[in-house]
Write a structure and sequence with these properties.
74% helix; 43 residues; mainly alpha
Length: 43
């Protein structure tokens, strides 16, 4: 049997460096807008 433990302090440090769900969603929206503008410009 193997028992694993996690250091919550390290997990919190990592989480602080990751973008929030809202930030990721906004980046996706910006990328979609840019993609649509490129499609219009290429036509």
């Amino acid at each position: 049997m193997i028992v694993a433990t996690y250091d919550n302090v390290q997990i919190k440090k990592i989480q602080e460096q990751l973008p929030t769900a809202e930030q990721i969603q906004r980046q996706i929206e910006l990328a979609e807008e840019e993609y649509k503008m490129n499609l219009r410009n290429d036509s």
